[in-house]
Amino acid sequence: MIADHLLLGREGEDAAAAHLASRGYEVLERNWRTPRGEVDLICRHGDTLVFVEVKTRGQGSLAAGTDAVHGRKRSRLLRAAAEYLSAGDLWARPCRFDVVSVVRHGASLRVEHLEDAFRADFERSGGRGWQPW
Fold first, then answer.
1. 64: which strand partners?
2. Is residue 5 predicted with pLDDT exceeding 90?
3. Is pLDDT above 70 for 110?
4. Helix (H) or strand (E) holding 38
5. Among 33, 42, 21, CA closest to 95
6. What is the pLDDT of residue 2?
7. Coiled-coil stretches, from where to where (predicted)?
8. Where in the chain does DSSP place strands (E)?
9. Arch. (CATH architecture) of 4-118
């Protein structure tokens, strides 16, 4: 039997993928894993690759899903994205990081999409950017 929080997370990712697809995003990968991290959704929107973190919250949650994407989580996303770009020789493609927050309200889900939620932190990497552009 699957735990309730895992079912809610899967339902949230399904809702996020459907929301993005309805807005012209092509979902390329779901739950793309590497030893360095995981990306919930990897999409293409026009010429841009979009790495999407999905945060799902139950009814009554006080914290917004977007608030949960901070330091360590961002670092893991950046490392996983870098590995994805390297594996596909996609470094020349523009890319960005989005966050989709999904909140349960009774029987329905509310989806909020924050485009360009954060950028790679070049200063923290000692001036070495994680991408060559």
1. none
2. no
3. yes
4. strand 37-45
5. 42
6. 67
7. none
8. 26-34, 37-45, 48-57, 95-105, 108-118
9. 3-Layer(aba) Sandwich (3.40)
What pLDDT is stored for residue 119 in this prediction? 78
Amino acid identity of 36?
Answer: R
Contact in structure between 59 and 105 (CB atoms under 8 Å): yes
Domain boundaries, the chain: 4-118
Q: Which residue has the tokens 């996303």?
A: 77
Task: Give yes or no for a contact between 113 and 20, defined as CB atoms under 8 angstroms apart.
Answer: yes
Which residues share a beta bridge with 114?
99
- Encode burial over 56-65: b for 16+ CB neighbours within 10 A, e otherwise: bbeeeeeeeb
Residue 52 has φ and ψ, to the nearest 5°, of -115, 125
Whole-number Å distance between alpha carbons of 85 and 107: 38
- By residue count, the chain amounts to 133
The whole-angstrom separation of Cα 61 and Cα 108 is 15
Residue 105 pLDDT more than 90? no
Q: How far is CA 126 from the centre of its chain?
A: 25
